[in-house]
Amino acid sequence: MARPTPSQPAATPKSSVSIAKKAATLKASSVADSMHAPNASRAREGSLRKAASRKGVISKGPATKTIVPTRARSASVKNARGLSLGEKTRLAKIFTQINVKPMDFMASAEFDLEDAEQRILANAPTIARPDVTWYRPLMDDFISARHRRARAGNSQSSVLLTGAQERVLFLKYNYSRKRVRLVQDALVDNKPTTDQAREMIKFFDLAEGFREQIAETNLALVLAMAKRVRNIDVDLSDLIGEGNMALMRSVDKFDCMRGFKFSTYACRAILKAFSRYSMKVQKDRSKIVAEFDPTMERSNHLETVRAQSEKDSAREVRHLVETNCADLSDLEKLVITARFGLNKAPGTPQATLEQVGREIGLTKERVRQIQNRGLEKLRLAFENRPTLAPASIPNQN
């Protein structure tokens, strides 16, 4: 049979013929343009792909690919578009957390049974979650806000787990992590189908919930271990934070199939974390010669020089008054001495003009005039005085 050509519209739909013509034209021109204008070629290729996609007859990829009917699109792409906005957001957060490395889990022979999901998740007994509101300020970094409201009605003030109950929780936790790992291993280019995406969201959320429940049930271990090492010179809040991190790591690494209690394993891990943190703090402190003191960094040289200069000047003025080098009258000398307390102990408050006036029988204004005249004489004498060594001036305290 002869191959249909664009001149035979009866054998090919009109829209397909139009797209085929554009594809053929692009293919012919791309060979020549690739040697001169690769950017323009890619632009034409992108415009053709957009036009074909709007008609639903071309698959993603280079424009020269085979044109296919709309109903033959990839099933994985179609299913991936079926996720809701909330599911897409949640999936993106999960990929952010686990895309760096595969999900780890502690293996168990029970995971390989045909009805493992039914036995471990569905038929296992339900274990109540404890009420940890008393510990909330210390665990805000570890407890997901999305679970707080949902579990508020299914909490007890305290829960003590038996060995069998611990085994149930850890089997649920590790089985959920294994299912996430299986989805990771089955992904192609990190592009899950709708079923894979929903399965990953389901088991990742289950694993996070079981992890939080185990940690909440054993929070008291952190405080108990912190009391045993109270002599360590470390801030208590920092110590509890390190203990919380060690507890969460213990949940991830504990193997319930070995027959040990989780508290035994976690307590040793918490104490080791305390020891490592204390050694780190001491090492950091040893690098610091002394704590920073702002007052040590501020120079007081100017204040010291100024204070000493004022003290020396006061001593010289006292010497001028006592030796009467300023040629003061008896009344001026009396007013200056009484007004500024030159005959009193250092630190004695100055007398007011009114007090001096009552003492010598003069008015306040007259005392002020005598004081100003005496101070002027002292100023002139002080400016014209010969330079005296401090030792030659008597030091009166």
Query: In which range does the helix fraction lie?
Result: 55-70%
Quickly count the helices.
17
Under the CATH scheme, which class of the domain at 85-144 and 157-287?
Mainly Alpha
The number of strands is 2
Q: Mean pLDDT score, rounded?
A: 73
By secondary-structure content and strand pairing, the structural class works out as: mainly alpha
Please tag this protein with its features.
2 strands; mainly alpha; disordered N terminus; 60% helix; rod-shaped; Arc Repressor Mutant, subunit A; two-stranded parallel sheet; 17 helices; Four Helix Bundle (Hemerythrin (Met), subunit A); 397 residues
Detailed description of the structure:
The chain is mainly α. Among the domains are: about 85-145 and about 155-285, Up-down Bundle (Four Helix Bundle (Hemerythrin (Met), subunit A)), CATH 1.20.120; about 305-385, Winged helix-like DNA-binding domain superfamily/Winged helix DNA-binding domain (Arc Repressor Mutant, subunit A), CATH 1.10.10.10. The chain is built from 17 helices and two strands. The chain has helices at about 15-35, 40-55, 75-80, 85-100, 115-120, 135-140, 150, 165-185, 195-215, 220-230, 235-255, 260-285, 295, 300-325, 330-340, 355-360, 365-385; strands spanning about 130, 155. Strands 1-2 form a two-stranded parallel ribbon. α8 packs antiparallel against α9. It is rod-shaped. The protein starts with 13 loop residues before the first helix and ends in a 14-residue tail after the last helix.
